[in-house]
Q: What sequence folds into this?
DNA sequence: CAAAAGAGTAACCGATTTGTAACTTGTTGT
DNA sequence: ACAACAAGTTACAAATCGGTTACTCTTTTG
């Protein structure tokens, strides 16, 4: 068994040959209807990757997506139906999607992307070395140095965003979007510094010489040590 | 496949013949070592039931248990090792365990209890009628009447406790423990009324004539309509 | 090296959550 | 029916969280 996948779609998520293709590639598939309850339904299944068919006409596709993104901490691939160019892709990536297949694509390509994202996220994530800190999305805490530290909502979002980028540098704008969502423009840029500062005080041994959350000057921040998502 | 089980133990969770017995009964088993990271590890596996071997000498068995209880929303059966009489059972049930096998028992009996709790919790929970409200533990919200309503931490705990009792009446003391944990004694009894009141204002059509959270006079509260956990 | 810009820190303020106190409403038993 | 008590409700106070402002420290660049 390779992993569990959830397909979210407007109607009939398991129709067509994509599900069959994925199943043959070794994934276990669960279909979920797009709607307010979709995020919990997906969460309940604990998928390792999500395919999100984004209909062109649905009013609440975006709201559901945002909730989904806040609920499941795994790669989400967006597949726009009958719409979307570059602009759309930029928008959904800003919202936290991991990929967006806007151009017409073949099933083989879709499969390749799914595999790539799955590997990227799960390759090291499943090797559970004891010393790697783990975040607990339910209690919004992190287990680090054998201790559980409670995080606030914003601290949690910040950290989760960094984790999602797997050690890569994340620029300030993206972090702000991850924390404040749509209203990110309206909150001062220094609030991000403050949020980082407060998070460091909680998880770093010496906040002045951070081991985890390291500044990339003029760009943003990155995780210098691995922290596992959940 | 019947369901996924997690066994939490001090060491070697999959040793002995209990795991084999459960596997033969059709359950998928995952072992998790007792420790600070146990709740997340269990959460990651999304079990449908948890067996918790409670060692007599472990200092943090209780703390881990409390976190586990707050992390996974499924039946937890406690199996004390070399200790515990009635008092111990009462204590762990207060902490939110669903069962505690203190008396010496046979494996057949253990299996029977596992099956019983699994059925009790999952029989109706898996039939997903659209109209049944669902709580989302990650965002601490409830999807009810096609709408997502954000709950506060206390409201969420209260509701989750009621859900866990599956429509049965829950007495005030137990609800207070579920919300305030160890410090429940120190908070005034009327705070529970207030918490109920606020939750009703959020989820009931008419808080004066509640459809969901109904008062059992002189005892406590119960859910008159089903709400699904997650 | 000095100025400019980015990042860190401290102080403070406002919004939300959550608790207590006081009062009203409803239920039970005599 | 009415006294006693449980539950519901309102008002307000304390605690927490999260944000802006203002200032300092560090890095980059002319």
A:
């Amino acid at each position: 068994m390779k992993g569990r996948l959830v397909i979210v779609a407007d109607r009939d998520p398991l129709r067509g040959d994509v599900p069959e293709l994925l199943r043959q590639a070794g994934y276990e598939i669960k279909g979920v209807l797009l709607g307010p309850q979709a995020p919990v339904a997906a969460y309940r299944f604990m998928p390792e990757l999500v395919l999100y068919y984004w209909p062109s006409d649905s009013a609440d596709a975006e709201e559901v997506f945002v909730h989904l993104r806040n609920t499941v901490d795994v790669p989400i691939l967006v597949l726009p139906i009958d719409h979307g160019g570059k602009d759309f892709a930029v928008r959904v990536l800003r919202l936290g999607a991991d990929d967006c297949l806007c151009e017409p694509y073949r099933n083989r390509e879709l499969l390749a992307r799914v595999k790539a994202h799955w590997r990227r996220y799960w390759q090291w994530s499943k090797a559970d070395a004891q010393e790697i800190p783990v975040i607990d999305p339910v209690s919004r805490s992190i287990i680090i140095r054998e201790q559980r530290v409670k995080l606030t909502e914003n601290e949690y979002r910040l950290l989760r965003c960094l984790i999602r980028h797997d050690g890569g540098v994340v620029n300030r704008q993206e972090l702000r979007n991850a924390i404040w969502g749509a209203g990110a423009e309206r909150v001062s840029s220094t609030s991000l510094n403050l949020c980082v500062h407060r998070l460091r005080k909680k998880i770093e041994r010496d906040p002045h010489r951070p081991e985890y959350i390291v500044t990339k000057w003029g760009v943003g921040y990155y995780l210098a040590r691995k922290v596992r998502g959940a």
